[in-house]
Amino acid sequence: MARRSDHEPVRAQRTRISATMVAVTVAVIFLILLIIFIAQNNRSVPIYFLGANGRVSEAVALIASAAAGAVLVLAIGIARIAQLRIAGRRHNRRMAKKQEAAESTSDESTTAASQGSSDSV
């Protein structure tokens, strides 16, 4: 007869190593697909760019254009992140100045109130 347990099963926590293993597995699968792509697209094609011309493998041309597009998107993303961080720092500085001003104003008003109450005694 099976005994029924009243506790939850123990689950393993996710770690950096497990995340790394997932990333490596995905990268290996991607590389295998890339090798298959290159092997199947090995014919030579003419390339013309800004007056320069030559012949390269079709796969190399496609991968190079995809990499150039990825670099462009990455550069735009980095610029946007930098823009948001700068805006965040400016906002934080403004809020800190407002908070300091509010604290100094409240300190002055409490000091004035305490001096006014001691004068009336």
Instruction: Extract low-pLDDT stretches.
Output: none
Number of domains: 1
Describe the oligomeric state of these chains in a short phrase.
single chain
| Mean pLDDT over the residues | 82
Strand content: 5-15%
Helix content: over 70%
| Tally of individual helices | 2
- Strand ordering within the main sheet: 1-2
Q: Give the distance, in angstroms, between the N- and C-terminal Cα atoms.
A: 85 Å
Q: What is the count of β-strands?
A: 2
Looking at this protein, list some descriptive labels:
121 residues; mainly alpha; flat
Structure characterization notes:
The chain has a two-stranded antiparallel sheet. It has one domain. The protein is built from two helices and two strands. Strand 1 (44-49) and strand 2 (52-57) form a beta hairpin. With 121 residues, it is mainly alpha-helical. The radius of gyration is 32 Å and the shape is flat. It starts with 15 loop residues before the first helix and ends with a helix.
